[in-house]
Design goal:
This protein is of the alpha/beta class and about 375 residues long. It has helices spanning about 40-55, 85-100, 145-165, 180-185, 205-215, 245-255, 280-290, 305-310, 320-325, 340, 345-350, and strands at about 15, 20, 25, 60-65, 100-110, 170-175, 225-230, 260-265, 290-295, 335. The strands form two sheets. It has an eight-stranded parallel beta barrel, surrounded by five helices. Strands 1-2 form a two-stranded antiparallel ribbon.
């Protein structure tokens, strides 16, 4: 594999709120489920520390569950509440900072993607805007205003704890058909009150969360918001069909306090709308003026859905196309997932031209904390 283009732009510093990043490489959030009873231990600490030591500019943790009984779908996914879990995260923050890195937690509620009877809290039913799964199955009544308020408060408390523990910001998970995204998507949000309606009205729940998180952390603490058009079912879903609709969807989130958008796509090189080569991150930056993070099969020859569906690995490929887009300032930061999952030194190898030493991603890699 040859890398024809200079990677210099990937290693330029970037300022995010009051935080300075040493380069444009972000470790993408990837659920690993190595935290028994929700508590991250030393193996998780070392996993993140290794990426910081090897030159990742910003680490976004795997999804961490807020303090709500229906927030999680796996007892080994880390919590972002409770004394033991927060103590574990405090140690991780300290270790990453000592290695010269920056780190933020991704805050998560899975909504109706949680199966009935799932651990932890098997007695707790899944919740969603209308109690519907992405396949239209009714698993609960629609969320009451009291339930909505409790979830909003749990996100805000997690944001406040992140700041208290010394994290460098937060990311709110509003993508991939989880709870915040379930409010966005008409198939799972059939409400007729002010939390439902058209795609603009359906941003209200996210706006409430962003505003309360902003109140909890103050004006200078970065809030990243991750969103996607695609859902696990179907992958071809579209929240919006045109750039004009995308602008209308994004502006309420900007006004609520988002500093940067993490625009989740399966393949970063695919154009989002006809008539332009811009991807979702490119359009989001153009329309809002906000910095954006691009993501999707960076450095690999197959997108991650083939891994989930068929257990396929992926080979390393050059990132010339990515660098060209970064040079054009279509987006600001680059989130790397599976390539960094299997190879903690990916950033260092790219920077120093050691591309022949990159480790290919295999299905087995998901079972190990490299």
């Amino acid at each position: 594999m040859n890398q024809a283009h200079s990677v210099q732009s990937l290693f330029q510093p970037f300022t995010l709120g009051n935080i300075k990043l040493s380069n444009r490489i972000v470790m993408a959030p990837m659920t690993r489920a190595f935290s028994p009873e929700g508590v991250p231990g030393d193996d998780v600490l070392n996993y993140y520390r290794r990426r910081a030591e090897k030159g990742v500019g910003l680490i976004v943790t795997e999804g961490t569950v807020i303090n709500h009984p229906a927030a999680s779908l796996n007892p080994n996914v880390p919590h972002f509440h409770g004394e033991k879990a927060l103590k574990g995260w405090a140690k991780i923050v300290k270790s990453v900072h000592k290695a010269g890195g920056r780190i933020i937690p991704q805050l998560w509620h899975v909504g109706t993607q949680r199966g009935i009877g799932k651990l932890p809290n098997p007695e707790t039913l899944p919740i969603g805007p209308s109690g519907l799964t992405d396949q239209g199955l009714k698993v609960n009544e629609r969320m009451t205003y009291r339930e909505i308020e409790a979830v909003v408060e749990a996100f805000a408390q997690a944001a406040a704890d992140a700041k208290r523990l010394g994290f460098d910001g937060i990311e709110l998970h509003g993508a991939h058909g989880y709870l915040i995204d379930q409010f966005f998507w008409e198939q799972t949000n059939k409400r007729t009150d002010h939390y439902g309606g058209n795609f603009i009205a359906r941003t209200r729940f996210a706006v409430d969360i962003i505003q309360e998180c902003r109140r909890a952390v103050g004006p200078d603490f970065p809030i990243i918001f991750r969103y996607s058009q695609w859902k696990r079912r179907p992958f071809t879903a579209k929240l919006v069909e045109t750039p004009e609709q995308l602008a209308q969807f994004l502006f309420p989130l900007v006004d609520a306090g988002v500093d940067i958008f993490h625009c989740s796509t399966r393949r970063f090189w695919e154009p989002e709308f006809e008539g332009s080569s811009l991807n979702l991150a490119g359009w989001t930056k153009k329309l809002t003026g906000k910095p954006t993070i691009t993501v999707g099969s960076i450095g690999l020859d197959t997108e991650f859905i083939s891994f989930f569906a068929e257990g396929k690995g992926a080979q390393n490929v050059n990132i010339d196309g990515l660098i060209e887009r970064l040079d054009r300032e279509e987006f600001d930061l680059v989130a790397v997932g599976r390539a960094l999952l299997v190879d903690p030194a990916w950033a260092d190898k790219i920077r120093n031209g050691r591309v022949e030493e990159l480790v290919p991603f295999t299905a087995e890699a998901s079972k190990i904390l490299y």
